[in-house]
Amino acid sequence: MIIKAVINRGRIQELFCLFYLFIFFEPPILSYYSQLSIVSKAFAAMRYFLGIVFLVKMLIKSINGDYSRSRTRLLPTTKSLIEFERRKNYNTSLCVFMYAVLLNIMLIIASYNNHTIYLTYVFSCISKIGFVAYNIGAYHKMRSKFFRCYAYLFTCYCVLNMLTQMVVPFGFMGYGDKRVWFLGLKNGTTLYLLLDLIMLAALYEYKHDKRVILFMLLINVCTIVNRSSTAIIVMFLLDIILYYQMFRNRSMIVNKATLLIVFVFLWFFFYAVVYNNAELDISVLVSKIVGKTPTFSGRTDVWKLAIEMYEKNKLWGAGIGVEFHPWGDPTNVVYSAHNSILEFLCKYGIFAAITFCVIMIAVFFQCLFLKNRKHSLLCCGIVLALFLAMMFEAEGNGYLFWSIVTMPYLLTDKKIRVI
User: 13, 10, 33, 32: which is closest to 21 by C-alpha?
Assistant: First the structure.
């Protein structure tokens, strides 16, 4: 009876986890139908409510010391910060929570100063912090089941998106790159595919179940069917790293020096190609490889407008609801800068952008300096794949972003051998 009760309790935990993840990761197709606006508003309201509940719950547990099983409390004290500095490894539960708090407070301050703040946006920022708290708490309770819940939901999402693309090749609405399927626009599926592959890889390393590899291959098929150049390049990068993690103990190709060079190159790419709009030979080469023009599917036109907008509003940005009209057609509106750093620069100003950049650099170098080489390479690969995706899409503060950024903590928790 006791064993049966434990099993039932575990199942209930998984069901609640799946429910919470479903609420935070509302199927994007719903937001494209005006008839379903009430459903999208209900999802948003539940996200705000749950985010506040998870945040308050985490604060109470941290104050009461319920997270004492971790190497530090989630909320920093003077003593914990001193101990944190002395440690050779790091506790990302502390880091990523404080990163979420810092970035979202900065965004609220920026939106207040550029006079575009509204109440639901503040609730949205709070829900991001609460979501990070939930991920940390759920992992401590569920361990491998937490990875499995993510893998279940996101594999279903990715497969459903692939099926809708195959059955309805012209999309449920829109045309060209604006065609909409289950996960919305094809360029918006990149982080869904990336996060699913990460969770499946973590589940494989934990369980060593070879059947998981079949699902990983399935997600790569979903990526190919999706035909997003960004997603294909990002997944290919992570595939290389995962291959050497799973099947090769040592590699001359995948090592810390190589990953550091790639990270530095991505910053150079942002400065030279994205910010200065320089058509370098490397950008021409990359565009030819993926079958695109050197404008990266028109992104350079959007980047120019985002930079102009930032230069007019350097301190606090132009505001949350910025619109771009890059091709002279007033009806052709773009709401994203198609680059995460530019998104922060043009909408929230220099301080928010610097905060975001510092977070990305800090997370990468924390992963790079991990003592365990295998942990270090995989965590660096996750950050690099995410950063590469953000060069072409504005994904800097979404729930997908924070799920991926939290992964290094989950993968390096010494309480349980995950990898």
Answer: 13
Q: What is the mean pLDDT of the chain?
A: 83
Tell me what pLDDT residue 417 has: 37
Please say whether the beta carbons of 189 and 228 come within 8 A.
Answer: yes
Rounded CA gap, 294 and 311, in Å?
A: 24
Alpha-carbon distance of 215 to 163, in angstroms, equals 15
- Residue 370: its pLDDT value, please? 81
Indicate the pLDDT class of residue 69, thresholds 50, 70 and 90.
Answer: very low
Number of other residues whose CB lies within 10 A of the CB of residue 121: 15
Q: Using CA atoms, how far apart are residues 36 and 280, in angstroms rounded to an integer? A: 45
Instruction: Provide CB contacts within 8 A for 299, sequence distance 6+.
Output: 338, 339, 392
The CA distance from 314 to 353, in Å, is 10
Continuous segment of H or E residues that includes residue 291: none
Q: How confident is the model at residue 2 (pLDDT cuts 50, 70, 90)?
A: very low
- Which class for 122: exposed (0-12), middle (13-18), buried (19 or more C-beta within 10 A)? middle
Residues 183, 192: contact at Cβ < 8 Å? yes
Per-residue buried b or exposed e for 132-152, using 16+ beta carbons within 10 Å of the residue's own CB: bbbbbbbbbebbebbbbbbbb
SS3 334: strand
Q: Give the helix ranges, DSSP H, for 65-118.
A: 78-86, 92-113
